[in-house]
Amino acid sequence: MKLAEFDVHALQRDLQVARSIPSARQAGPYHNGGWKGVSLRSSSGDAATALAGAPPFVPYRDTPLLARTPYFRQLLRCLALPMKGVRLLSLDPGGKIEAHRNPDLSLGSPMARLHVVVDTNPHVFVVFDGQRQHWRAGELWYGDFARPHWVVNAGDTTRVHMVLDVYVTRRLLSMFPSSYLRTLRKSGRRPGGSLMRRLLLSANFGNHTYPATEHGSAPPETRP
């Protein structure tokens, strides 16, 4: 679901600064090495990491890269959401992120994952449960990443997203249509999850990635 839009040119100006830092390989077996990133916030305070998780009870900190990227800082201030890690994740031309799921990242959990599209091309798609979507540059999107999903970049330019892991708060929920939240509650999912799950994720227990094939959702052919 698209939640907001930001200045594409300002995003891409800061992206040029970020490209001065060597990207780190994204962890996991879900890609062939073309999925990489740097961090604006990380548990180590370093920018040259693409890791989403953190050791238990270790807080996340702004990295020096965030200090050098004024529009990225402005965007985070504008959202005003409590958050953990913030990464710039790139997917090379021809790259594919295999089907997987993040059961701790949805409005029905204590944390959700947001994407700001910094740079893309018309042949980049994210697919949730077989439904293909194209997210345009400058757009802020929420995806229910607890569902099986996969990504393909069938274009000839690199896709870059700012990926934010944020706590599910009243402010975040206010960005969604009331009809969407009613549907969420009717499905039996409580926005923000249980108190126990909130405590566990606050202490950095959780936020794991699992193969989507556990639910019988192996990705189809990715070429459009």
* Helix content percent band: 10-25%
**Which structural class is indicated by helix and strand composition?**
alpha+beta
- Principal-axis shape equals globular
Average pLDDT value?
91
The stretches of 5 or more residues where confidence is low (pLDDT under 50) are 214-224
Q: Indicate the proportion of strand residues.
A: 25-35%
Helix run count: 6
How do the helices and strands follow one another from N- to C-terminus? EHEEEHHEEEEEEEEHHHE
- Overall number of strands: 13
- Main sheet: strands, sense, barrel: 8 strands, antiparallel
In whole angstroms, how far apart are the ends? 22 Å
- Rg of Cα set: 17 Å
Question: What would your notes on this structure say?
Answer:
The protein has 224 residues and is an alpha+beta fold. The protein has 6 helices and 13 strands. It has helices at 8-18, 64-67, 70-79, 170-173, 178-186, 195-202; strands at 2-5, 24-25, 35-42, 61-62, 83-91, 96-101, 111-119, 124-128, 131-133, 139-142, 149-153, 159-167, 210-211. Strands 1, 2, 3, 4, 5, 7, 10 and 12 form an 8-stranded antiparallel β-sheet that branches. It is globular, with a radius of gyration of 17 Å. The two termini are 22 Å apart. Mean pLDDT is 91; it is low at 214-224.
Question: What features would you highlight for this structure?
Answer:
single chain, 224 residues, alpha+beta, eight-stranded antiparallel β-sheet, five-stranded antiparallel β-sheet, 6 helices, 13 strands, globular, disordered C terminus
What is the strand and helix layout of this fold?
Layout: E1 2-5, H1 8-18, E2 24-25, E3 35-42, E4 61-62, H2 64-67, H3 70-79, E5 83-91, E6 96-101, E7 111-119, E8 124-128, E9 131-133, E10 139-142, E11 149-153, E12 159-167, H4 170-173, H5 178-186, H6 195-202, E13 210-211
Antiparallel strand pairs: 1-10, 2-3, 3-4, 3-5, 5-12, 6-11, 6-13, 7-10, 7-12, 8-9, 8-11
